[in-house]
Amino acid sequence: MIQERIFIIIIACLLDLVFGDPHWLWHPVQGMGWLIDHVEAWMRKRFRIREDRDADIRKKQVAGTFTVVIVITVSLLVAAGILYGCNRIHHTLYLVVAIWMSYQMLAACSLRRESMKVCKALEAGDVEQARTAVSMIVGRDTASLTEEGIAKAAVETVAENTSDGVIAPLFYMFLYQLYAYAKQKLLCLTVKITIYIKINWMFHPIFQKNRFLITFVGMMT
Prior knowledge:
The protein starts with a helix and ends with a helix. By secondary structure, it is mostly helical. It has helices at about 1-20, 30-45, 55-90, 90-105, 110-125, 125-135, 145-200, 205-210, 210-220. α2 (about 30-45) packs antiparallel against α3 and α5 packs antiparallel against α6. The protein contains nine helices and no strands. Helices cover about 80% and strands about 0% of the residues.
């Protein structure tokens, strides 16, 4: 079980290093973005939040909290439901989908590829191309950025996305492996303790003389 999960992580990392995130391929983050847009719109309508930035601060905080909880819950349930359904169909299908989901969480290759486009454009002195390239990896307006601003924006987004697209996914993947390992060991320990209790109670003099107690204790443990 543990070896299987480590295998999933290793294959996912290799897929990311080789293929990255192809632009033509639909990404789960797009689905999460669609969900966020619709939940936010519904929350604004439900709480009657005005568009003014400084208005309804308290309502925005409450609506934002609900939005975060809903998006995280739905994302977890959908992913868990897909994996559960695949495992019910066939374990090999579960492995393939688990590897795919893990691969989709990583962004090391794409981050390096897109940031190097900015670097090469700056080295060539093509500021317009550098602005276009950096606009692909940052959310800010890049039209008026100087060479220094472009370089800073690229470095900042690489640092941020290394955390979001590499370190955090790997951390939680391995954290889940530790949880699964601890759960497995705890289950084994529980079984051993139960067997030990049964054996010791069965051979106790009191129980040897009373078949009813033997049967009762065996059912309870």
